[in-house]
Amino acid sequence: MKKIAVIGSTGSIGTQTLDVIREHPDQFTVHTLACGRNIDLLKQQIAAFEPEVVIIGRVEDLPKLKGHLGHARAYAGEEALVEAAAHSDVDFVMNAMVGARGLLPTMAAAKAGKKIGIANKETLVTAGHLVTQTCREHGAELIAVDSEHSAILQSLQGSNLSEVERIIVTASGGSFRDWSYEQLKTATPSDALKHPNWSMGQKVTIDSATMMNKGLEVIEAHWLFGLPYEKIDVVIHRESIIHSLVEYIDKSVIAQLGSPDMKVAIQYALTYPNRLELGGTERLNLLEVGKLHFEAYDQNKHRCLDLSIGAGKAGGSMPTVLNAANEVAVELFLQEKVSFLGIADIVEKALETHDKISQPSIEDVLAVDEETRKRVRAL
Predict the structure, then answer these.
(1) Which of 174, 265, 317, 356 has the fewest Cβ atoms surrounding its Cβ within 10 A?
(2) pLDDT digit of tens for each residue in the chain (379 aa)?
(3) How many Cβ atoms from other residues are within 10 Å of residue 218's Cβ?
(4) What is the architecture of the domain spanning 2-144?
(5) Angle (deg, nearest 10), helices 262-271 and 147-156
(6) In what order do the strands lie in the sheet with 164-171?
(7) CA torsion, ordered 31, 123, 80, 357, to nearest 10 deg
């Protein structure tokens, strides 16, 4: 029985992780549930999964859990979250948090030598050099959860990284893949949140529309698989059937295909390198799909992707600035305080005005993250 800590349990990845756990009660049990402020959903999760530990974001919300905890112990705040990620009874930490807040629990889990399902891509974007080094030093294992990185992981099974020519990360193109640049000038948050293929949280859906999500995934792939940026390509694939591909030095290309369902990647992370049956997921019918389409991304419309790759190649503290500026810019767009195209403008300005730190420590990363957010909000 594998004991799971689900960090970000009330979000999109967190709830789907619990769906997978519910389907395999003989394989998994929930040790820890951690969320921010969605206390009502958390109460339902506590009743369904009977965790031993519950973590919430704010101390003032603890009284709301009274009478709903069963045998669970409840704590609040970042320090409690970090301790929970490193708990000796936990076998697997699913980090499903959104944003750079996921960095500290990931580092704690890495230092404790845990298996870590990394759905929180911002952790590797902001501090990939520190996370991967800590995992090596303490015997921790990072396991990809994003559908694209899971596809790469699956396509690499039985092969050597030294035999890889390049990896090709696929992108749906997001809500605005058929919009012109002129149309994007009037795009609203409600327009951006209508993703054609995937069901995701608000922030990830906006990132998909700007292609920032794909840029963050390129940086994440660099750290997960140890490949230089020159060996990581991006292609728009409308159907989201091929989730990513690996091309080898003999020109063979291996791809992972499936219907767009995050539970496949989530379950594979939980069981890696083995597999279990997965109910409730649509079987891929190639005869119904008929055709698969591929196209290059538009550098004019998708500036965020190029900004991401540039920040990744620059290294140091630049990806931290990229991520922090984007998170604030997306917040402002959702509040209708900046335009859709203004997101890329804000990120570019933040990168241009930052003095890079070449080898940032964890303290540097956290300081740059906070300073960038303040700077962007003051613009």
Answers:
(1) 356
(2) 999 999 999 998 999 999 999 999 999 999 999 999 899 999 999 999 999 999 999 999 999 999 999 999 999 999 999 999 999 999 999 999 977 788 999 999 999 999 999 998 889 999 999 999 999 999 999 999 999 999 999 999 999 999 999 999 999 988 899 999 999 999 999 999 887 665 567 888 899 999 999 999 999 999 999 999 999 999 999 999 999 999 999 999 999 999 989 999 999 999 999 999 998 888 999 999 999 999 999 999 999 999 999 999 999 999 999 999 999 999 999 999 999 999 999 999 999 999 999 999 999 999 999 999 999 999 8
(3) 21
(4) 3-Layer(aba) Sandwich (3.40)
(5) 50
(6) 232-236, 164-171, 242-248, 253-257
(7) 160
Distance CA 149, CA 243 (A): 8
- Following DSSP, what letter does each residue of 352-366 receive, concatenated? HT----SS--HHHHH
d(CA 57, CA 107): 18
pTM of the model: 0.92
Parallel, antiparallel or unpaired: strands 92-95 and 115-118: parallel
Could you give the CA distance from residue 244 to residue 254 in angstroms, rounded to a whole number?
9
Residue spans of the domains in the chain: they are: 2-144, 149-260+282-314
Q: Which two tokens stand for residue 23?
A: 């389907």
Long-range CB pairs of 281-290, under 8 A, 24+ apart, other chains included: 283/259, 284/241, 284/257, 284/258, 284/259, 289/239, 289/241
